Amino acid sequence: MSNPRALAAGLVAAVVAPILSWSAAAGGNPVFSTVDPPDVTRRANSGTRAVFINGRGEMAGYYEIAGGSGALNGFLREADGTFQSFAAPDGSTDIYVHALNDRGTILGSYVGKDLRTHGFLRKRNGGLTAIDVPGARETLAYAINSRGTVAGTADGSGFVMTARGAVSTFRPQGAVTTVACGLNDAGEVGGVYFDSNEVAHGFKRSANGEITAFDAPGSAKTFASTISGSGDIGGYFVDGSHVMHGYVRHNDGSFAAADLPNAQETSVGNLREGNAAGSFREAGNRHGFIREASGTMIRIDFPGARYSMLSQLGPRGSAVGTYYDSHNVSHGFLLRGPATQD
Description:
The chain is mainly β. It contains two helices and 29 strands.
């Protein structure tokens, strides 16, 4: 495995000055808002999860409904604050939201009454449509672009499905399991695959099907989580000492670090207009961060929260994520500020 000290030579270092708070970076106070559906439960270790935002300011996620059943519903929060809630297509109790595009189409997965995992699409004002790759027992849909093309994994292969239902499955050379995690409007896919030794590698798949595998410098395992409109890929890698580091792989193949001083682990989960969003762990607590295109790292903490995690950058300087309160209940949040203006 590569020596972790090779990071200094192999990656463009992030700014090593003390990490900035949002207000210090933006020159003003941030505006945080809690985003919870009206019927969310308030029990510990439950609540609102995995919040996403699109270019229209709409938000989506999933949550545990009140009443003690443990059922998970999805939601769409319109830009005016109105909530739409929905359950799995066949009345199953488990539904997970993974993405939201600019047309208001929600993408996710659910465990059906047949005990199989299915993908689903939900249009802004319509019902849910199941997504199943032909011949596959398990289909998980993770990414959708503005054209309605979907990407994910099915029985160990990556897949791309067009809005008309045409499906292409693929595996990088040497892959045993392939997961397509991100998809942009150009049809490029970013993701991770595992080889026969269960070692993780990143990959990028072009719209014409050409696959480029990659490993971050100094890595023992490389995971890719997202791809930007310009073809940059973000994720994290694990070094030889089992420490997680965030990274951005630019379209030209160069790497930039997204690490923070004193962090035990860092990961990038979203890219937008040259900026990156993710989370890091420090002294046992989890925090969100934004990495600006300049390399400046900005720490994001919901006021009074035990933990904060940033999931996605939105339009006009917004961002969304999840935080846990003092009772360990999770909530979605919306952050407005000038630091990530389009």
